[in-house]
Amino acid sequence: MKGKPTPSQPAPKPQAATKAEIHLAIEALTDEDTERIEQTALNRINRIGRGANRRSHEDLIQEAFIRILDGTRHWFKGRVSFAQCLIGAIWSIASEWAGHRERNKELPEYASLESDLLRPNDQGKTTSPFDELQSPDLNIVEEFIETDMNAEWESENKALADKIEAAFENDERATIVLMGFQDGMDGPAIRAEFEFSEKEFRTTTRRIQRGARKIMDEHYGK
Fold first, then answer.
1. Region 185-200: what's the mean pLDDT?
2. Which residues contact 43 (CB under 8 A, 6 or more apart)?
3. What is the DSSP annotation of 34-88?
4. In whole angstroms, what separates CA 172 from the centre of its chain?
5. Cβ distance 29 to 76 under 8 Å?
6. Strand pairing partners for 128?
7. Would strands 119-120 and 126-127 be described as parallel, antiparallel, or unpaired?
8. CA pair distance 75, 19, nearest whole angstrom
């Protein structure tokens, strides 16, 4: 008579790298890793534009290092390389900066300086786009209603996106894939950019799909 099958043990929880391991990984970064990290940061700064709020790609890289070292963001060694973890942090921080500007465009720190917009015209005279501004002929009530509806729709989607991102905050591969999709990249582009194998990418996207479906069902009360 066969005995009862032994219940399978749950997979051990992944352990975040220690500070010592992180310092060793920083020292082990190759020239190729460094070039890739710097290029990623440059691309992100260019992508978010004024959302960088006059911060450089070097500021972005430094912030990513700080967050990994102080434990704000974790590196799980068994899941991704340190370079991939750092690149994921760079994407996430850049997205955070851009989102802050989008929600706070009225703040003085995001105001455009007129001097930044000065351009020479065909006659060589320096002009500003404000020179040709006319008083708006808008219906203030219609404008308010349209803005309010857009804000409500964006708020609903933002809340759902935040829940999905939070669910995968300790899953570096999933975070990278989510950031890539949000940035308009397709699967092959994400795989090439972050050097994922086809199996790694498919496994990660399936994990995201399962988690997102569950979160959406809970969000909409299904």
1. 84
2. none
3. HHHHHHHHHHHHHHHGGGGTT--HHHHHHHHHHHHHTTSS---TTTS-HHHHHHH
4. 12
5. no
6. none
7. antiparallel
8. 10
C-alpha span between 153 and 78 (Å, rounded):
39
Under a CB-based contact definition with an 8 Å cutoff, are residues 93 and 64 in contact? yes
What is the DSSP code (8-state) at residue 120?
E
The token pair that represents 190 in the structure block: 């994400």
Mean pLDDT score, 164-192: 81
Are residues 38 and 57 in contact, defined by beta-carbon separation less than 8 angstroms?
yes
Sign of CA dihedral 204, 206, 209, 211: negative
User: Residue 170 has what DSSP assignment?
Assistant: T
pLDDT band at 115 (very low <50, low <70, confident <90, very high): very low
